Amino acid sequence: METLVVLGGGESGVGTAILGKKLGFEVFVSDKGLIKAAYKNVLIHNGIDWEEGGHSESRIMQADLVMKSPGIPDTAPMVRSLLEKGVEVISEIEFAARYTKANLVAITGSNGKTTTTMLTHHIMKQGGLNVGMAGNIGDSFAAMVARENFEHYVLEVSSFQLDGIRSFRPHIAVITNITPDHLDRYDHIFENYIASKFRIAMNQTEEDYLIYDADDEVITGWLKDHPVRSRKIPFSLEKEFSEGVYIKENELITSINNQQSRMSTETLTLQGKHNQKNAMAASAVAQLLKIRKSTIRDSMQSFQGVEHRLEQVLKIQDVLFINDSKATNVNATYYALESMKHPTVWIVGGVDKGNDYLPLMPMVREKVKAIICLGVDNVKLVNTFSSVVDVMVETTSMNEAVQIAHKMADKGDTVLLSPACASFDLFESYEDRGDKFKQAVRGL
């Protein structure tokens, strides 16, 4: 019996353990930290061996195969020892994909991947396809392969998950965009991060498709020097294609395999240029899967959007409060500010991942009337923007930030939480940060 060791007892780790057990592996889960009670109960219920609060090195080194959770870097000593010994160390999406014959649609990118994944899943489901949604979003892909019998999967995949693939081959791959993010995991070399994202297409053949943003110079530049074998389907707000997706005279036009469909951009529920791009990517997938044009159109109109991503919370005394806590990098915040229609009080800050805030300067000059820094260390934000806005306040509590914003905002203004940073200085996660913002707004 082959031994599967799972490093990390979170969503992907426990999902992999369930699938491994079902496939007949001898499974051992090891977590350096503590495993959450809910996951521990699943392991106990399934009779899976586990440990927490440290790794039993001698036992782990006996593994035939290791799945490591995306949060564990390749540089971790245990991972290094395994690789030196010649043990295969893979990610959950690699492990699960080996045991399903389903059609895989995989979506990656620095921003927009969650919205694009949810929108694509929504259209496929409305189109009557038997489809599951997993990966970086919601449920573990491996657990789904163990428990369900979906014919299609839409997977949101991160660069960390792609680092651990060997044979993973999506029939349709999407790269929404690539901007500097997580560079601490890539030796602060942007090229390493780009290469990681493009692993999504490394096993694709001429029968597969790569859908990508042709306005993104990082993507188009990389493709020039590193050609892919898959058929390329570009989308753009600026160019037109004989094969691809583009916008002309307020119509979103999808032209693939000599089939063309058109829909008015007015019908898209989600506003903003970045959401037009997410819609383009999703409509390209839908057309490749031969979903009816009317279904695609209806689905775009009925889609509700993603929690913590430009989520309208409440209007209080004609001031709109928007929760964009999922904006954990500068590029995401750029999109948020770009879509603001009214003078904006901007709540920003958190754990800075080596951010360069200068690209936000034109948007801040044009849209932002006041800035509230919500973080432990706001020096960089203050240095960058204090000369551009009239009012800048520092705070370390969400309640205080929301109350100050409420006082500063006039009728017709918008209060936007779009942090451009990770949340871990003051919050458990971006979801926790967004929830606390919504609670504070509702408590006004």
Uncertain runs: none
**Per DSSP, what share of the residues sits in E-state strands of 2 or more residues?**
15-25%
The CATH homologous superfamily of the largest domain corresponds to Mur-like, catalytic domain
- Helix-residue proportion: 25-40%
Mean pLDDT score: 93
User: What's the total helix number?
Assistant: 17
**Helical/strand content category:** alpha/beta
CATH architecture grouping of the largest domain: 3-Layer(aba) Sandwich
Could you give the distance between the termini?
60 Å
Q: Examine the coordinates and then state which fold CATH places here, giving the name of the CATH topology of the largest domain.
A: UDP-N-acetylmuramoyl-L-alanine:D-glutamate ligase
Q: What is the number of E strands? A: 20
Structural features:
single chain; about 450 residues; alpha/beta; UDP-N-acetylmuramoyl-L-alanine:D-glutamate ligase; 3 domains; 9-stranded mixed beta sheet; 6-stranded mixed beta sheet; globular
Descriptive notes:
Belongs to the MurCDEF family. It comes from Robertkochia marina. Cell wall formation. Catalyzes the addition of glutamate to the nucleotide precursor UDP-N-acetylmuramoyl-L-alanine (UMA). Residues 308-421 form the Mur ligase C-terminal domain. Its EC number is 6.3.2.9. With 444 residues, the chain is an alpha/beta fold. The protein has 3 domains: 3-89, Rossmann fold (3-Layer(aba) Sandwich); 94-302, UDP-N-acetylmuramoyl-L-alanine:D-glutamate ligase (3-Layer(aba) Sandwich), CATH 3.40.1190.10; 311-442, Protein-Tyrosine Phosphatase, Chain A (Alpha-Beta Complex), CATH 3.90.190.20. It has 17 helices and 20 strands. The protein has helices spanning 11-23, 37-45, 57-60, 77-85, 92-97, 113-126, 141-147, 159-163, 190-198, 217-225, 273-288, 293-302, 330-338, 361-367, 379-385, 398-408, 430-442, and strands spanning 3-7, 26-31, 49-52, 65-68, 88-90, 103-108, 131-135, 152-156, 172-175, 209-213, 231-236, 244-248, 251-256, 259-264, 311-316, 319-323, 344-348, 368-374, 391-395, 414-417. A 9-stranded mixed β-sheet has the order 7-8-6-9-10-11-12-13-14. It has a 6-stranded mixed β-sheet with strand order 15-16-20-17-18-19, with helices on both faces. β7, α7 and β8 (152-156) form a beta-alpha-beta unit. α1 packs parallel to α7 (141-147) and α6 (113-126) crosses α12 (293-302). The radius of gyration is 22 Å and the shape is globular.
